[in-house]
Design goal:
The complex is a heterodimer of chains A (417) and B (192). Chain A is an alpha/beta fold. Chain A has 3 domains: 242 residues, Thiamin diphosphate (ThDP)-binding fold, Pyr/PP domains (Rossmann fold, 3-Layer(aba) Sandwich); 127 residues, Rossmann fold; 33 residues, no CATH class. Chain A has a 7-stranded mixed sheet, with helices on both faces. A 6-stranded mixed sheet of chain A has the order 9-11-10-13-14-15, with helices on both faces. In chain A, helix 1 packs parallel to helix 7. The longest helix of chain A is centred in the middle third of the chain and has 30 residues. Chain A starts with a strand and ends in an 8-residue tail after the last helix. With 192 residues, chain B is of the alpha/beta class. Chain B has one domain: 3-Layer(aba) Sandwich (Pyruvate-ferredoxin Oxidoreductase, domain 3). Chain B is 41% helix and 20% strand. Chain B has a 6-stranded mixed sheet with strand order 2-3-1-4-5-6, with helices on one face. In chain B, helix 1 crosses helix 5 and helix 4 runs antiparallel to helix 5. In chain B, 52% of the residues are buried. Classes of the chains: A alpha/beta (417), B alpha/beta (192).
Chain lengths: 417, 192
């Protein structure tokens, strides 16, 4: 059914259609509306057989999810930013134990300085925890990916994060097609756990493993993700056949077959990138873009096939690896190992800074002329940086950086975008 | 594509206004996208929300930098925020005020844009009259329907009814209808 609704509400409805049995969460912006919506549905008795558990922290949220999933319940939670960091130990445990929990990340920056707005620092910080990470481009895709995520998680016995841009998607009202219960039931069978804590047939889960077997357990976790590289496209195709629309998959190339310049990005910014690609194509520029949906497992082969014929690749990242540059760029370079082309890393959209068509257009033109630095910060205010560096030389006790910059900027409410 | 930017203060229903506008457009079979730009999550702080309406899927995710229409829920922002930034030539401006553009010190803006595209409407007073609370968003959407003709009043009313429980919805619809009538009358006067 077509609806005009908030991204968070669309995700809550998708989760409800997946017939979850345990939902636990702790509120944190910008994810909160999702679990609020689910809490209301449980309270209204709309989710038969589902228990909503209020917990005292994010660490407890995922710990309860681990227990519930180990007891054989289809389990869901959601978080953002510092919330994900606070549950970090449990994030690794959920994956290490092979529990098919699905968790939404309403992507948000990590402090300090404290910032509630969107970037990808939170989920990227957990990239090596053993979870599958899928990034949604639109609210429709966020809805669809959650349905695919339970199937993927349960077939592999591996937890899955569905990452959607905080505010830009979670708080956006958009048109979404919400499937019927029967359609979702036909795609997502009942949860048949590989391991279950059952008093009638007792087992322990979570043994201590020494050097004699730790490597093998870890290798098998890696092997599981490599299997996901085949399963993700398969599920995406099956989803398309049953629901009549393309969502998910490893990557999605757009106008790349004859492109000399290809932009690689994740999440909602791809929409704006496509607008700029179309504008430039209209003027005869051979440019295209690739959206990475599956960030973990990282689709090395698919990316290589999509990118290797280009002259240059621009990786647009909403996360900064401080002291290195880009995180996604590292993976893309590995995918292109041995291929001679120019590679640019662009850090953009940190802490909610708007990524505009105008700035992207200038960026792509500079890249086309090969006039970009290897690592560029989109729309960096060089004057403010220079003046702050200068100020720090004037006095040993120069004080906190963020506050000094805010003082210099004056009122921040006066500008648009 | 038609782009609207709504300015107001936290607690005035700015975000809800943009959401209802997108629902109204959806109900007319169009594509619409509404999203907020929280400066800070505080009552009274300047807040913006955006709405885009188009006949095809909307992919663009940047803030509305060049609006075709501005809805200003709180005239005290006039001297605090760069409200008119990027306003398209001939763009629509609707301000919640009992005063005229001239009295607000905005005569210059009207001269640039044409009278029938610019209007003030006492939305807070209409809200107090019908809703009994100073929430001007629904009235302004009624005014917007009248000034821009981008959306029908009955779609605005349907969107309000989708968003609120019945009693609150009906009082907001009444506010929207009266604002629609006032702005329509003002347009006719200025056209004459």
């Amino acid at each position: 059914m077509l609806k005009q609704t908030e991204g968070s509400r669309a995700v809550a409805e998708a989760i409800a259609l997946c017939r979850p049995e345990v939902i636990c969460a702790y509120p944190i912006t910008p994810q909160t509306h999702i679990v609020e919506g689910l809490g209301e549905m449980v309270k209204a008795g709309e989710l038969a057989g589902c228990e909503f558990i209020n917990v005292e922290s994010e660490f407890a949220a995922l710990s309860v999810a681990i227990g519930a999933s180990a007891a054989g319940a289809r389990t869901y939670t959601a978080t953002s930013s510092q919330g994900l960091l606070f549950m970090a130990e449990a994030v690794y445990n959920a994956a290490g134990l092979g529990l098919p929990i699905v968790m939404t990340i309403g992507n948000r920056a990590i402090g300090a300085p404290i910032n509630i707005w969107n970037d990808h620092s939170d989920s990227m910080s957990m990239r090596d925890a053993g979870w599958i990470q899928l990034f949604a481009e639109t609210n429709q895709e966020a809805l669809d990916l959650h349905i695919q995520a339970f199937r993927l998680a349960e077939e592999l016995s591996c937890p899955v994060m569905v990452c959607m841009d905080g505010f830009i998607l979670t708080h956006a009202y958009d048109r979404v097609d919400v499937p019927a219960q029967a359609e979702v039931d036909a795609f997502l069978p009942a949860f048949e756990p590989r391991q279950v804590l059952d008093p009638a047939e007792p087992v322990t889960i979570g043994a201590m493993v020494g050097p004699e077997a730790f490597t093998e357990v870890r290798y098998l976790a890696h092997h599981k993700q490599l299997r996901a590289l085949a399963l993700i496209p398969h599920l995406s195709s099956e989803f398309a056949a049953k629901f009549g629309r393309a969502s998910g998959g490893l990557i999605r190339p757009y106008r790349t077959s004859d492109a000399e310049t290809i932009v690689v990005a994740l999440g909602s910014v791809i929409g704006t990138v496509k607008e700029v690609v179309d504008d430039m194509r209209g003027e005869g520029v051979a440019i295209g873009c690739v959206s990475i949906c599956s960030f973990r497992p990282f689709p090395l082969t698919a990316l290589r096939e999509a990118l290797e014929h280009a002259k240059r690749v621009i990786v647009l990242e909403k996360c900064l690896a401080v002291g290195l540059g880009g995180i996604v760029s590292d993976g893309v370079r590995k995918a292109l190992s041995g291929v001679m082309l120019k590679g640019y890393t662009v850090i953009a959209g940190l802490g909610g800074r708007a990524i505009t068509r105008k700035s992207l257009r200038q960026l792509f033109e500079d890249a086309g002329a090969d006039e970009l630095e290897q690592v560029t910060f989109l729309d960096l205010n060089a004057d403010i940086v220079a003046s702050e560096l200068e100020r720090e030389t004037l006095s040993r006790r120069s004080g906190p950086t963020a506050e000094a910059i805010l003082r210099r900027l004056g009122t921040v409410a006066s500008g648009i975008g | 594509m038609f782009q609207i930017r709504i300015h107001g203060r936290g607690g005035q229903g700015v975000v809800t206004g943009a959401e209802m506008l997108s629902v109204a457009a959806f109900l007319e079979g169009r594509y619409a996208q509404a999203f907020p730009s929280f400066g800070s999550e505080r009552m009274g702080a300047p807040v913006m929300a955006f709405c885009r309406i188009d006949d095809r899927e909307i992919r663009l995710r940047e803030p509305v930098l060049a609006p075709d229409a501005l809805i200003i829920q709180d005239p005290t922002l006039l001297h605090q925020v760069d409200l008119f930034s990027g306003l398209a030539p001939g763009g629509y401006v609707l301000i919640n005020s009992t005063r005229s553009f001239g009295e607000l010190g905005l005569a210059e803006i009207v001269r640039g844009g044409g009278r029938h595209r610019m209007c003030t409407v006492p939305a807070t007073e209409l809200a107090m009259k019908h809703v009994k609370r100073p929430l001007p968003n629904a009235a302004l959407l009624g005014g917007f329907a009248a000034i821009s003709r981008e959306i029908k009043l009955k779609s605005v009313a349907a969107a309000i009814r989708e968003k609120f429980p019945r009693a609150i919805a009906e009082s907001n619809v009444a506010a929207a209808e009266e604002a629609y009538a006032l702005v329509t009358k003002a347009r006719e006067t200025s056209d004459a």
